[in-house]
Amino acid sequence: MGSGGAITEVVGKIKAAGKTTWVLSLCQCVALGELFLGRPTRPSPVVYLTEQPDASLREALRRAGLLDCDDVRVLSWSGCRGTPWPAVVAAAIAEAKRVGAGLLVVDTLPQFAGLRGDAENNAGEALAAIAPLQEAAADGPGRARGPARAQSGWRRRR
Predict the structure, then answer these.
(1) Could you tell me the pTM of the whole model?
(2) How high is the pLDDT of residue 64?
(3) Measured distance CA(87)–CA(148) in Å, rounded
């Protein structure tokens, strides 16, 4: 699990480990201020970047009880395709600051950062991909650097 200003990586077998289900459960608990794995959460909005197509995302959100949750802000990869990864992070940070989010989720980093093939296992490429998130985490909640460029495509889940 993580804490404020921390980066937590969730790993597991593709399409089998339940990573998205686990993370959406965390999102639900944060958005509603409920216990997660027996630990308290601080109620706050969530910013969620997803690679999932709308239909499968909608079903996953329904299963997690988040379909009608106004405190979950979503940006789909298809909505920012072609935007450089650092600009996507800057937009996510700007949105998180705007709504007072306490949790930012990137599902999945390789998709958004443009890591192809085995690149996520290459230390240099992986470090470059995570660098914008590390800068945001180091700045702490509400103090993130970077341009606050508006990103079209943010939507409340309804």
Answers:
(1) 0.82
(2) 93
(3) 9
